[in-house]
């Protein structure tokens, strides 16, 4: 027994050596626990083993079982298989290595790490080392270092050529775009992709509309780091349904240039409901990642009975990250030429827009220049400090209208406004300084067209006093110098001190407050109808007492609110002469302390009520506001249009009615103090019944309030969920003539808007004549808008 033990011990010593090191013809085993069985034909290693092969193979596992008779190595638990020759790492929980035929087979979930940061997640792989093939019939995921994900039903990878083949492929890139291919080949050397039967579903938000389903199909795809080419491609953004998409773009070849970030099309047809509409031999546009890129924009044909027919060809140029411009030549069929250029620049604290046009024609030229710049100074201790410079000028009074000039910045066709404004503010101080120049293009007398205000300023300061516990004291100084109608000048300087109390609530439920104002005005005029020709100074004071008695009644369904209120104005002074001021009083401003923009003299009492009925959810059903002003004497210095110059003003009323979802009604009126004549009527009403919506607006001014009167109607009828008819008309009741009307048919869904519109404009101004226009517009979301030539008369 003792001799047998010694023999076994010697075998173990010779076999394991001191470091538990075992060598076979194919492998070298290193482990803490190694057991040799069956006369050395079986080698088992447990509790951690490292195995090295003679051909740059290295394996780590928790347990291994090697059969020397068939040269098969079975590895279990936390298996890591390194093929250093091919730079491949295989991770699985069970791997069988058939050394004789150089075949590695995994069982269960397997991960393969390839060179160049590619990773394969699969199961049950077969690695044929002699054939340089790794393959699996299990579902597989291929990941790159950018987290682009390729899902395949099965795959084959050629280790020597680094080619990855897959079937039924689904790929998701880092931008969440989804690609589907019937079969594909990916070259991991140069990162190229070849695929057949391509379908790409782009991320829904790629064009900024979550209702779209942007997608692209093609018969084949080839892609590398720089370009992607799709053959026989069909692209659309329309929402998926069982029918053909409202629009699609079909091209024999679509090339995505990733360096230039452009999509290039060959032999492309724009189809509307599968009917070819436009053909483009070649064209391109920026890819969705580009916000701005240089290139031609959609051209258009313009028909005009005033200036003639023309074609415009706009070109957009992105000169830098923060600068771009659009130049738009317009070629007139009569030989005239107009070029419009708009330049834009945005900096951290600065932005600028310049728009300029020049039209050359027989007998001379016409032009316009608009420029606007804003600069934020970020002055210390100020929440806001900004300078704005604006320039607007045109060579001819009707040029902007006849040529239908459009710019990014809104402007008036009748008034050219140039100014320099500086504003800054902080918690207790506001400062505003401006210089202005106006040109009234509607006036034919050149000397009367211009008006200059230099400067116009105001400084508003909240003062800290011992009275802060009961109210606030404010000081404001303002002034201006105005020159107009060639030789008329008005200068004004005003100082205001205003103390405003905090609300005071009585034990009976009254809400009270008061304002005490002191004003000093300094005026100097020349040839003015309202200012004297020498310097005059006046002092005014006013005490304004306000009181209201809110009453609220709540039921299970409604909340009713009735608020009687009064405002008492007391002044020892006469009113400033502002009888010519264009100032209308209504229920919005009648209870404001500065309702005339100037302190009113004498004594007046304003009485009014507010009545509301609201549903418990807050929806308003009925609102009625009434107010009237009473004076102890007539005051001819007050504005005639305000009717406050009378002992009893008009009765100002405002009624809003929303009884149901079908009808909204609003009525604003000014009823003469004899309660017989309506001096002002404004009626607004909207009727909505199913797919029919009509809105009426009626305005009538009488007597001292003016003479304007018109009736405006806007009506729409939805024929179905996508199409509707719209009608709009305005009639001047003063002249009993129509000003304009238009009618439009519109079809709209998530990706297409088509409209046919007829406009008739009765307006005329010198060389601007009344027009009739008919045109068709087609908007392809998100590509562009196509307009047919306007048929005008």
Shape: elongated
What are the segments in which pLDDT stays under 50 over at least 5 consecutive residues?
Answer: 1-19
Radius of gyration based on Cα positions: 42 Å
Q: Approximately what portion of the residues adopt beta-strand conformation? A: over 45%
Topology of this structure?
Blueprint: H1 2-16, E1 21-23, E2 27-37, E3 42-53, E4 57-61, E5 63-67, E6 72-83, E7 88-98, E8 103-106, E9 109-114, E10 118-123, E11 126-128, E12 133-136, E13 140-143, E14 149-152, E15 154-158, E16 163-172, E17 178-187, E18 192-201, E19 215-223, E20 227-236, E21 247-257, E22 262-272, E23 275-286, E24 295-296, E25 300-302, E26 310-312, E27 315-320, E28 323-332, E29 337-346, E30 350-361, E31 364-376, E32 384-394, H2 399-402, E33 415-426, E34 429-440, E35 450-463, E36 471-484, E37 488-501, E38 504-505, E39 511-526, E40 536-548, E41 551-554, E42 558-570, E43 603-615, E44 620-631, E45 651-657, E46 663-671, E47 678-689, E48 692-701, E49 709-718, E50 723-732, E51 737-748, E52 752-761, E53 771-780, E54 784-787, E55 791-792
Antiparallel strand pairs: 1-2, 2-3, 3-4, 3-5, 4-6, 5-6, 6-7, 7-8, 7-9, 8-11, 9-10, 10-13, 11-12, 12-15, 13-14, 14-16, 15-16, 16-17, 17-18, 18-19, 19-20, 20-21, 21-22, 22-23, 24-27, 25-26, 26-28, 27-28, 28-29, 29-30, 30-31, 31-32, 32-33, 33-34, 34-35, 35-36, 36-37, 37-39, 38-39, 39-40, ...
């Amino acid at each position: 027994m003792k001799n047998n033990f010694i023999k076994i011990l010697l075998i173990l010593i010779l076999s394991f050596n001191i470091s538990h090191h075992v060598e076979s013809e194919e492998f070298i085993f290193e482990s803490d626990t190694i057991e040799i069985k069956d006369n050395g034909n079986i080698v088992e290693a447990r509790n951690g083993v490292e195995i090295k092969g003679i051909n740059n193979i290295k394996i780590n596992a928790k347990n291994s079982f090697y059969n020397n008779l068939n040269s098969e190595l079975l590895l279990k638990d936390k298996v890591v298989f390194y093929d250093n020759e091919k730079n491949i790492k295989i991770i699985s929980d069970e791997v069988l290595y058939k050394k004789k035929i150089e075949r590695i087979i995994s069982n269960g979930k397997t991960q393969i790490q390839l060179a160049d940061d590619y990773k394969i997640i699969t199961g049950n792989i077969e690695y044929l080392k002699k054939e340089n093939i790794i393959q699996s019939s299990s579902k597989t995921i291929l990941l790159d270092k950018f987290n682009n994900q390729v899902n395949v039903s099965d795959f084959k990878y050629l280790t020597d050529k680094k080619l990855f083949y897959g079937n039924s492929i689904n790929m998701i890139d880092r931008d969440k775009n989804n690609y589907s291919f019937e079969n594909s080949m990916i070259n991991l050397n140069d990162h190229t992709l070849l695929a057949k039967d391509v379908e790409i579903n782009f991320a829904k938000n790629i064009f900024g509309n979550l209702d779209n389903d942007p997608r692209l199909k093609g018969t084949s795809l080839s892609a590398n780091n720089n370009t992607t080419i799709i053959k026989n491609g069909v692209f659309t953004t329309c929402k998926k349904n069982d029918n053909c998409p409202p629009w699609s773009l079909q091209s024999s070849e679509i090339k995505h240039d990733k360096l230039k970030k452009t999509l290039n099309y060959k032999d492309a047809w724009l189809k509307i409901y599968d009917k070819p509409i436009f053909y483009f031999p070649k064209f391109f546009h920026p890819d969705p990642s580009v916000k701005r890129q240089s290139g031609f924009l959609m051209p258009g044909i313009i028909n005009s009975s005033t200036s003639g027919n023309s074609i415009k060809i706009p070109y957009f140029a992105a000169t830098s990250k923060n600068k771009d411009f659009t130049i738009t030549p317009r070629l007139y069929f009569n030989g005239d030429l107009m070029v419009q250029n708009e330049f834009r620049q945005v900096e951290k604290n600065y932005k600028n827009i310049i728009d300029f046009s020049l039209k050359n024609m027989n007998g001379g030229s016409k032009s316009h220049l608009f420029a606007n710049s804003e600069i934020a100074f970020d002055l210390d201790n100020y929440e806001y400090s900004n300078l704005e410079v604006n320039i607007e000028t045109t060579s001819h009074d009707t040029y902007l209208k006849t040529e239908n000039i459009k710019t990014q910045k809104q402007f008036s066709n009748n008034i050219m406004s140039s100014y320099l404004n500086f504003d800054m503010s902080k918690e207790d101080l506001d400062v505003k300084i401006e210089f202005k120049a106006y040109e009234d293009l509607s006036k034919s007398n050149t000397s009367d067209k211009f008006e200059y205000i230099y400067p116009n300023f105001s400084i508003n300061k909240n003062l800290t006093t011992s009275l802060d516990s009961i109210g606030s004291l404010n000081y404001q100084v303002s002034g201006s110098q105005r020159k107009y109608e060639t030789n008329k000048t008005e200068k004004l300087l005003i100082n205001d001190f205003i103390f405003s109390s905090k609300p005071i609530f009585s034990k009976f439920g009254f809400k009270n407050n008061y304002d005490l104002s002191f004003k000093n005005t300094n005026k100097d005029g020349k040839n003015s109808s309202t200012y004297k020709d020498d310097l005059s100074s006046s002092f005014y004071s006013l005490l304004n007492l306000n009181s209201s008695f809110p009453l609220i009644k709540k039921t299970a369904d409604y909340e009713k609110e009735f608020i009687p209120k009064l405002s008492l104005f007391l002044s020892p002074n006469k009113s400033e002469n502002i009888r010519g001021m264009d100032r209308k009083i209504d229920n919005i401003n009648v209870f404001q302390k500065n309702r005339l923009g100037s302190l009113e003299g004498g004594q007046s009492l304003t009485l009014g009520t507010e009545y509301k009925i609201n549903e418990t959810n807050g929806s308003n059903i009925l609102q009625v506001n009434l107010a009237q002003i009473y004076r102890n004497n007539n005051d001819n210095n007050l504005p005639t249009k305000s009717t406050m110059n009378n002992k009893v003003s008009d009765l100002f009323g405002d009624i809003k009615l929303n009884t149901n979802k079908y009808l909204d009604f609003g009525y604003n009126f000014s009823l003469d103090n004899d309660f017989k004549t309506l001096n002002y009527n404004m009626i607004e009403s909207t009727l909505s019944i199913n797919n029919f919506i009509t809105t009426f607006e009626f305005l009538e001014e009488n007597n001292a309030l003016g003479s304007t009167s018109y009736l405006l109607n806007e009506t729409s009828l939805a024929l179905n969920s996508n199409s509707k008819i719209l009608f709009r008309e305005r009639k001047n009741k003063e002249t009993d003539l129509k000003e304009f009307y238009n009618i439009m048919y519109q079809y709209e869904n998530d990706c297409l808007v088509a409209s046919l519109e007829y406009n008739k404009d009765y307006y005329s101004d010198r060389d601007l004549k009344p027009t009739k226009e008919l045109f068709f517009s087609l908007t392809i979301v998100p590509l562009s808008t196509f307009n047919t030539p306007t048929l005008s008369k």
